[in-house]
Amino acid sequence: MKQLQFRMHRYVFQPTLVGVAVTLICIPLFIKLGLWQYNKAQQKQAVHEAYDQAKLDTALKFPVGLIDSNAINIDGWKYKKVTLQGVYETKYQFLLDNQVEGDRVGYHVITPLKIDNANEYVLVNRGWILGKDTHAELPLFNTPTGKQTLTGQIWVPSKKIFTLEGPDDSSTGGSMSASQPWQQVWQNMSMAKYKHSVPLVVSELAIKLDQDSHAGGFVRNWQIPAERITSNLGYAYQWFGFAFATLLIFFYMSTAKIEAEKNAA
Fold it and tell me: How many other CB atoms are there within 10 angstroms of residue 115's CB atom?
């Protein structure tokens, strides 16, 4: 098979089959990886903007009846600022472990709230409290009684959870037995596990208590969920640079300078 060859002035472009194959594989791959990182950055930027805008918007009334994740548009409610009234149910509250505030490790206090004029509960993240020196000793905290009026942002716990814990009731779909003690400390926030562990009708949406709310909150320096945007953009430009560099290397390795022909003596 005759090798492809192009001449231009004193140079000849003569790519090899291996060079063409490597270039055709690497350039699309690098571009695809670059677009993947760029799209991740755009998605995080959109989350960042939605999060900031929600804090400025007027609080909406918390939606009652959103108890089935397959029948509602959860993403449409993410980060929305909401308000509602209800009474805390301390029996089924728990501490979310391994939560860091500054350089200190503690817990987030998660308490269900019985929504006023509805047979439904919503989980409220009331903020961070400092842990004790050992996990065997749990911190003490107060929960206000009576009707509470609270404001907060919708929080949709992630379903992508890595855990070393054993199987729980959520795997079988059964509720917690009355003889079993309530688990006061959880390693992960699993809405499915919680809903299968309590005899309550619980909304798929949870709430992070607003910093200005006085409904029994603790430290609430909520982190913006969109992080590492600049890092993703940097990785994207890096992959695009690899694609461009691959193209330059291909042309450089495939081009040779033609030596001047010597005149016959």
Answer: 18
Coil vs helix vs strand at 104: strand
**pLDDT in single tens digits along all 265 residues of the chain:** 455 666 667 778 888 889 999 999 999 999 999 999 999 999 888 878 877 777 777 888 998 877 765 556 777 788 889 999 999 999 999 999 999 998 899 999 999 999 999 999 999 999 999 998 887 889 999 999 999 999 999 988 876 654 445 544 444 344 455 556 889 999 999 888 999 999 999 999 999 999 888 899 999 998 776 567 889 999 999 999 999 999 999 999 888 877 765 444 4
Query: 49, 69 in Cβ contact below 8 A?
Result: no
Q: Is 132 helix (H, G, I), strand (E, B) or coil?
A: coil
Question: How many other CB atoms are found less than 10 A from the CB of residue 19?
Answer: 15
Task: Give one DSSP letter per residue of 144-200, joined into a string.
Answer: --SEEEEEEEEE---S---------GGGTTPPPPTTSPP--EESS--HHHHHHHSSS
- Strands annotated E in the chain: 6-8, 11-13, 60-61, 81-88, 94-101, 104-115, 121-130, 147-155, 185-186, 206-209, 255-257
Tokens of 181: 């003690």
**Rounded CA separation 223/230 (Å):** 17
